[in-house]
């Protein structure tokens, strides 16, 4: 049996941009993607701590070291610049493997979105 578990989590980052006229997705600083084990094109869940909104979208790689967190397309209507969000990636794995799996949890600086 396969179960879906948390694989990656970027905890409490600040939205730096919201671009309604883009085709969709979330742009994430490449360094944050690397340390959290999230890849370009991956489906992620976004949880907005400011308004309770939850949504799913896919990831686009942003410039490394920029701290960019940009919600694009329709998702831009569910956030405001400076909102605090959590980004969660999930993975499917064997039930027994899931019991011992350790996700990549990242806690960046909430002001810069960078790893201190």
Describe the protein:
The protein starts with a strand and ends in a 10-residue tail after the last strand. It is mainly beta and 116 residues long. The protein has a single domain (2-106), classed as Barwin-like endoglucanases (Beta Barrel). The mean pLDDT is 96. The chain contains 2 helices and 8 strands. It is globular. It has an 8-stranded mixed sheet with strand order 2-6-3-5-4-7-1-8. The longest helix has 7 residues, at 30-36.
Q: From the alpha carbons, calculate the radius of gyration and give it in angstroms.
A: 14 Å
CATH class, please? Answer: Mainly Beta
* SS-based class: mainly beta
The rough form would be described as globular
Keyphrases for this structure?
116 residues; Barwin-like endoglucanases; mainly beta; 8-stranded mixed beta sheet
Please outline what is shown here:
With 116 residues, the chain is mainly beta. The protein has a single domain, classed as Barwin-like endoglucanases (Beta Barrel).
